[in-house]
Write a structure and sequence with these properties.
The complex is a heterodimer. Chain A is an alpha/beta fold. Chain A has a domain of 176 residues: P-loop containing nucleotide triphosphate hydrolases (Rossmann fold). Chain A contains nine helices and ten strands. Chain A has a six-stranded mixed sheet, with helices on both faces. In chain A, helix 6 links the parallel strand 7 and strand 8. Chain B has a domain of 187 residues: ABC transporter involved in vitamin B12 uptake, BtuC. The chains are: A alpha/beta, B mainly alpha. At the A-B interface, helix 3 of A face helix 7, helix 8 and helix 11 of B.
């Protein structure tokens, strides 16, 4: 299933966000995401990138402007099974939680199956397939707290994949994960984007990674500072403007 | 020697106790993992106000306790959602507020003889036939409801935000759960009393969590520990003439400490 890149999956129009009395956290953001895009959202801490992600997911309501997901206004959006979400691991996750890898991945099927229905054989197959995608079938019976940080993060990808989404949102997914596991993780994301045609939205503070992995890049610092191809961003003067003159940038070949 | 099974009041107490032993961990696992176990304490004090109200009005105190507990649970959940007040603050408001109501009501009635003491610390003697019917019916309902919403409850407990984004009706499930929890707390009053309910809800779960099993195995272990403690506690207290509520909780504590020490020991050897 390769994506029709001309189709808008997300349309953000004139979105601003601020708590009453405070300066705006986001100012007049306009951004479209097309099917099959791998969009990296970067920007300084406090620049509003996670806020924008939460607005795209309907977890926060914008002060002004509108968001449409799959053509539907976000506040009326109901097709959540088309959406996968991988939250910030460090914040969300209790390592002592008594759930196995399989139990966590199975959560991704809960909404698909619906209330008062138990997961059936199809669900089990989807869960196994999702675990296979992330290379964790052998670990399915282990407690999630007993895995390494990188493996845990792959479990959360499997949970999102189990629900058969068309788009996956990832919020700082590799925070606290070691470098080697990060590489594996981004290789996995690339595979999901290229071979499955999944649309990915990745929020990260790691400009290096995002610029080298994503096909589209949006840089948010209250305003949308840049939106376009990663390479043009690096060649431009944006980094210096955002982070100061000392920023060094390593560009891999591809 | 006395035979516990020849005394209908003891049998009723045992039956009620075993039903509570089965449902308490079912609620407890979700409360403990959501760091929300304190609500059991709050709702038990609210139930006490309900009991006092029932005694004054001449209504079965279990019914007024159920009504008070459920109403308070819904109010607390609403307050929590407004985010205008911290969760713990809401709990402590309701805890002290209902205790105050209970004390004033008791004063109004110039004390209630021994009844009140048995509601504070539990006494299987107070379990009437009508109580057993109520406890039985509602326990069965809870034993059916938790498995029915199991997959949603597990997801929401693990990660509420992700569960919401995945499309689960988190508000509905949360409200449903808090009502079930409030019913469980009120039902447990005749068995362990107001002051010891949260022990019944928390300790078996805390013990089972030490065993590092998967989710449903953890629930089953907690239920096993809970049933064993209630059974032993009621039998021992019957023959030794001790407080059953206190005995049950003491046995739970002994099991918790043993399991904790054993699992800790393994942990050290494994290194």
């Amino acid at each position: 299933m390769l994506a029709d890149h001309s189709k808008n999956i997300i349309e953000i129009q004139g979105v601003s966000f601020g708590y009453t009395g405070n300066e705006l956290a986001l100012k007049d953001i306009n951004l479209n995401v097309h099917a099959g895009d791998y969009l990296g959202i970067i920007g300084p801490n406090g620049g509003g990138k996670t806020t924008l992600l939460k607005i795209m997911l309907g977890l926060l309501s914008p002060t002004a402007g509108s968001v449409r997901l799959f053509g539907q206004p976000i506040e009326k959006f109901s097709q959540w099974t088309r959406v996968g979400y991988v939250p910030q691991k460090a914040v969300q996750f209790d390592a002592a939680f008594p759930a196995t890898v399989e139990e966590v991945a199975a959560m991704g099927r809960a909404a698909r199956r619906g209330l008062l229905r138990r997961l059936n054989k199809t669900d089990r197959e989807k869960i196994t397939n999702a675990l296979a995608q992330v290379g964790l079938v052998a670990e399915r019976g282990r407690l999630i707290g007993d895995l390494s940080g990188g493996q845990q993060q792959r479990v959360f990808i499997a949970r999102a994949l189990a629900g058969d989404p068309e788009i996956i949102f990832l919020d700082e997914p590799t925070a606290g994960v070691d470098v080697k596991a990060q590489e594996q993780f981004y290789a996995l994301l690339k595979k999901l984007n290229q071979t499955l045609g999944l649309t990915l939205i990745l929020v990260s503070h790691d400009i290096d990674v995002v610029a080298n992995e994503a096909t589209e890049l949006a840089c948010i610092n209250q305003e949308l500072v840049y939106h376009g191809a990663p390479h043009a961003f690096i060649k431009g003067d944006y980094l210096n403007r955002l982070y100061g003159k000392e920023t060094k940038f390593i560009l891999h070949n591809h | 020697m006395l035979n516990i099974f020849q005394y209908s009041f003891a049998l009723r107490g045992l039956e009620a106790g075993l039903l509570i032993a089965l449902i308490a961990p079912l609620i407890g696992i979700f409360l403990v993992l959501r760091r929300y176990a304190l609500i059991a304490d709050t709702l038990s004090h609210v139930s006490l106000a309900g009991v006092a109200l029932g005694l004054i009005a001449g209504v079965n105190p279990l019914i007024t306790a159920l009504a008070a507990s459920t109403a308070a649970a819904i109010a607390i959940e609403r307050l929590r959602l407004t985010k205008r007040i911290y969760g713990e603050t809401a709990l402590s408001l309701f805890l002290s507020g209902s205790l105050a109501i209970a004390i004033v009501l008791i004063g109004l009635a110039h004390g209630f003889n021994t009844d009140l003491f048995s509601y504070l610390f539990g006494s299987i003697v107070t379990v009437k036939q009508s109580d057993l019917v109520i406890i039985g019916l509602l326990s069965l309902l809870i034993l059916a409801a938790i498995p029915a919403f199991y997959k949603e409850l597990v997801y929401i407990t693990f990660d509420e935000e992700a569960a919401r984004v995945s499309g689960l009706p988190t508000k509905f499930i949360n409200t449903l759960f808090i009502i079930i929890a409030s019913i469980t707390v009120a039902l447990a009053i005749p068995v362990v009393g107001v002051l010891l309910i949260s022990a019944l809800i928390v300790i078996p779960v805390a013990t089972a969590l030490q065993l590092k099993k998967n989710f449903w195995q953890t629930i089953l272990c907690a239920q096993g520990i809970s049933v064993l403690s209630v059974l032993l506690g009621i039998i021992i207290s019957f023959y030794q003439d001790l407080s059953p509520g206190g005995m049950i909780v003491l046995i739970m504590l002994v099991i918790f400490i043993s399991v904790f020490l054993i699992t800790h020991d393994n942990f050290h050897h494994a290194r």
